[in-house]
Amino acid sequence: MSLRKYLLAGGLSTVLLLGACNENGDSEEESTEEETVEGEDSEEASTEEEATENESTDDSTESDEVSFSGEYGDYNMTEFGQYTMEAEPSEEETEEGAEEAGPTELVTIEFEFTNNSDVATSPQEAFGLDLAVRQMMEGGATTLENMTMDLPEDFEKSAEVDASSEMIESGETVTAVVAYGPVDPEVETVLQSRENPMADEEVEPLDYTIEMEASEGAEEETTEEDTMEDSEE
């Protein structure tokens, strides 16, 4: 009788041990499946976020395009820049008390030009007839001068500057750069289309604000004024 009890007790212990092992195995499988599902969900969420970011980037690129179709040509602006032209040393002696000429700030515009007129014309000439670069002063708008030919020979995009003065036949397209100034970086600078009452068809006007950065000289003057005000207080 005692031997049978021992055998029965041993058999029950074995059954309980195997059952516990099976439960642990099932729980590990369930946790592995849950982790796999969570990983797939996180990957799908990240993929959706990336797609949303790409869509928003594409929208901003399209909205930043600046183009205009005028009487003398089609213009697709590809880049707006800013250039500081240093004053050339004067051979004449400067009068006592007179201020020396400082650097001149220019706004540069790179654009693709297509001549849609019937005659050959240069990109900068057509640009000046169809468009104007202005600064919005308190007393009204001031039209800036075309200073493309004043850019130095070592200008970064000298080839595009040279192309702006070359004659382009009707229907041809070329990339050119023009420069306008002098510019006060602290005043709003805009690119606007000129009104042409003699145009056969009415075109959509262009009015685009060009972002300018304050020059180093202006920043230094502002810093000095702030320092003087602080000292007076």
Short description:
This protein is of the alpha+beta class. The chain is built from 4 helices and 9 strands.
Kindly describe this structure.
This protein is α+β, with helices and mostly antiparallel strands and 233 residues long. The protein has a domain of 136 residues: Immunoglobulin-like (Sandwich). It is built from four helices and nine strands; from the N terminus they run αβββαβββαβββα. Strands 1-2-3-7-6 form a five-stranded antiparallel beta sheet. It has a four-stranded antiparallel beta sheet with strand order 5-4-8-9. A hairpin with a 3-residue loop joins strand 1 and strand 2. The protein is globular. About 6% of the residues have low confidence.
> How many H/I helices?
4
Order of helices and strands: HEEEHEEEHEEEH
Give the strand order of the largest sheet, numbering strands 1, 2, ... along the chain: 1-2-3-7-6
**Overall morphology:** globular
Strand element count: 9
Q: How many strands, what sense, and barrel or not for the largest sheet?
A: 5 strands, antiparallel
CATH class of the domain at 66-86 and 103-217: Mainly Beta
Content-based structural category: alpha+beta
Mean pLDDT: 76
CATH structural fold name of the domain at 66-86 and 103-217: Immunoglobulin-like
The CATH architecture of the domain at 66-86 and 103-217 would be: Sandwich
Strand proportion: 25-35%
pLDDT below 50 for ≥5 consecutive residues: which ranges?
51-63
Helix content: 25-40%
Q: What is the terminal-to-terminal distance?
A: 108 Å
